Amino acid sequence: MSREIVAGVDGSPESLAAAGWAAREALHRGLPLRLAHAWRWEPLDLPLVQDPDEQQRAAYAVLREAEATIAERHPELALTATLLPDTPVSALLGTEDTAEMLVIGSRGHGALAGFLLGSYGQQVIAASSRPVVAVRSRDGEQAEPPSGYVLVGQLGSPEDSAAALGFAFETAAARGAAVRAVRAWSLPSLYAYSPGSMRLADEAGGLVPYEEKALREALAPWRERYPAVPVAEHVELGSAGEVLLSASGGAQLLVVGRRAKRGALGSRIGSVAHAALHLAPCPVAVIPQG
């Protein structure tokens, strides 16, 4: 089945920035781009004149404006635009059968931590089976450094981070960029490590060499698969979110994995992904693990 990149548009500067990033990524990867706008008639319980035909025309206008903007900037791009008769979250998730990735807009950091990404965006990220890229707006454009690396966080075992590492290497190969892989670690509490774990750390020469070895082992199959991609390794003591954010200043893209968790207030995307989405200065790709 043919693949495409899908970008959600809603008329906001954030979604236009997302569409622009998605267009450039589609060209890097040699894929078509589909712009998607969700709309369905849902009359409000208000004493107002509500015209479904007028609202539908407005929805099409949002879609056509985004399509015209992207087509003008990238005339060589294979581009389609679709009005999806559904709610925004369901509409985007409904494109996953053909989507290589979903791209959405993000407002980034500000005063109301926890609501900055938007409830729709957070729901899409938590529920999607495909990579989701959140792009911050700068007046409808996402400024990208002319050069820079794809930054990826490596956590846990090689299997735990395989999806995020694979996406990072694939993206870097398509862009002709390097990968910078970061593994954060913390000092164990008295009972955190089993005797077997401590023995392995001792055999490696200590905790730092042990963590460095774990990162090398996780990267090994991806170095072999993408031999032309330069790789930098970085192991640092600290929380994963803080270490990744400190390394994100020169990144074209930050890639993190996530395991969605259900809580009393709905799906949660994990502390590392949450920090990256709200505070990273570059676009953030959130990759479902396993």
Automatic annotation (TrEMBL):
Q: What is this protein called?
A: Nucleotide-binding universal stress UspA family protein
Instruction: Tell me where in this chain the UspA domain is found.
Output: 1-136, 151-288
This chain's source organism reads Streptomyces nymphaeiformis
Record's SUPFAM superfamilies? Adenine nucleotide alpha hydrolases-like (SSF52402)
Family per similarity comment: Belongs to the universal stress protein A family.
| Pfam families, alphabetized | Usp (PF00582)
